[in-house]
Amino acid sequence: MYYLLLIITAILAYGFGSLSTLTIASLYVYKKNLRKLGRGNVWLSNFRRIYGFGGLLVLLLVELVKDILPVVIGGLLLGIKGHADVGRVFAGFCLIVGRQWPLFYDLKGSFATVAIIVTAFFTDLSVGIAALAAAALLIWLTKYLSLGSLAAAAVTLVTALLVVEQRLLVYLSLAVLLVVLARNIPCVIRIFRGTETKLSLEKDLSYKFDGGYDR
What we know:
Layout (H helix, E strand, L loop, with lengths): L1 H17 L2 H8 L15 H36 L4 H17 L12 H11 L1 H18 L2 H19 L3 H27 L22
């Protein structure tokens, strides 16, 4: 029964992680198909250039809700066996894997920064605060989302080692850091080469002059 609950939690959380927050926000909040706007892709650069800073705030809220749901459900499922805390963090780990290697988009995902921070908060409040502060600081200083994700995952592990007594939660924090490292190594290489795209909060309206813009 315990392993069945773990499997259900893993499938559910990975499935949530595989859903595109960009597509959800564009279709159900702005009522537009992101694939028909701008450059026709569903990546952050296209979303940002169309919806600007306000759009990023909406995107953040949608992603926050989408990432919290499977973590809470994982806690409820494993809570049946008295391991709600393990269920939440395990679901967070599977969620992060889904965000970075989504089933529905040829395993081409995002940096999972929000999912990492959500998982950190459900590990321990102080762990979550530290992860949020580290991610926000690195992204603000460098404008690289990949460095924010790496900072959040690294600080989650270090803080968990200091304040979390349950070793299994620490091991899961280590697993999170390893998968984030694996996902972001190419990004770090591009940063050193000067070819990695930086986050910009300015709205770009040039897409309206594109031939494929759907008015």
